[in-house]
């Protein structure tokens, strides 16, 4: 019998130490653990390997002959859904938290990696290895900041857990998949959300202060399908600000450099992805990537109302026009921004076409950013599917 080789370890970095990916680090948490040993291959910003990891996780990588694969990744099924009895205080209707709770209650997993907030700051992330439904529930709602979810990985081995669910965004999941074989697990389930334009805690403060009428009372916010940012305040009121009225010139540097170089908006390596952007307003958008993802969704089917995903309109002109506007930091007067928001909402892209609009706008912006700031990285860092998406547009030099 061959003995199982223990995985290799290296000393975790101190929180104040510069990370191997330097300014591109998204603080995914890997380097806070002894799995930093694998950082050169595992880090999404040092070694882009989406296609290889897709084959490992889903049995195949994206089919580049199929534009739906470019956009949404490997998938078996997409559907719009919402909980018939939403979880109060969740980001949307709480499908993510409900799946995690069911998996724990049914004994499918022994623990769940998720992220709560600290006692003193609702937006400061506090990753945990949850062992009770109450701990999962306390992690509901987005912490719209870079979050070191993988910093709890050492606890998994120490706890002796064999079946685990990890909830996370694309860069965290890419590093997780790269070290999956080293975690000593019998079964790993991965529940992802899309993610884009994330910020450091300081960056978030700047965003709230430049955009909201009352930054200190914001409980959560989302860039919505009606082309407005919706801020929900402590008193339950909702403030909306049109995308086209954002102070782009002041906000240009607010997004983390990692997010300006990211091409994994749709969390390609999760088994199941729960977002909103491919669904009608008020609904969540679900992408089942593989059988494990289907297994997770099945656990909450009886808590959901569903409808097929749809696609309407044509995003291309709006994307092409937004490229120079963003590049030159154009900000419209608020009345014009509101008017443009109303017109675009009436005639603009809906459902999956809205998701494509958002993916195209971010990928073209990020492609230009990488080309200008890291030209030596461009060829290897931009995955083939993203190259195809970007090549549909005319870009400035
Ligand atoms: P809930 O039941 O409220 O659970 C939320 C879960 O998210 C919790 O389990 C928590 O552990 C986890 N979480 C919270 N913050 C973070 C974080 N910073 N990093 C990792 N995990 C976290 N969807 C889109 O369709 N388009 C987008 O552009 C988009 N942008 C997003 C940007 C960010 C930064 C994040 C965190 C999510 C984004 N999403 C986006 C996903 C969407 O906002 C919802 O999170 C998702 O639909 C789940 O909603 P829910 O009510 O089911 O989640
Ligand atoms: Fe380490 Fe993650 Fe930062 Fe890469 S993104 S340097 S893996 S903490």
TrEMBL record:
> Which Pfam families does the entry link to?
FrhB_FdhB_C, FrhB_FdhB_N
- Mark the transmembrane ranges: none
- Ranges where the Coenzyme F420 hydrogenase/dehydrogenase beta subunit C-terminal domain occurs: 162-309
Task: Cite the Coenzyme F420 hydrogenase/dehydrogenase beta subunit N-terminal domain residue spans from the record.
Answer: 78-154
**A GO molecular-function annotation:** oxidoreductase activity, acting on CH or CH2 groups, with an iron-sulfur protein as acceptor
Q: Would you say which domain of life the source belongs to? A: Bacteria
Name-wise, this protein is: Coenzyme F420 hydrogenase
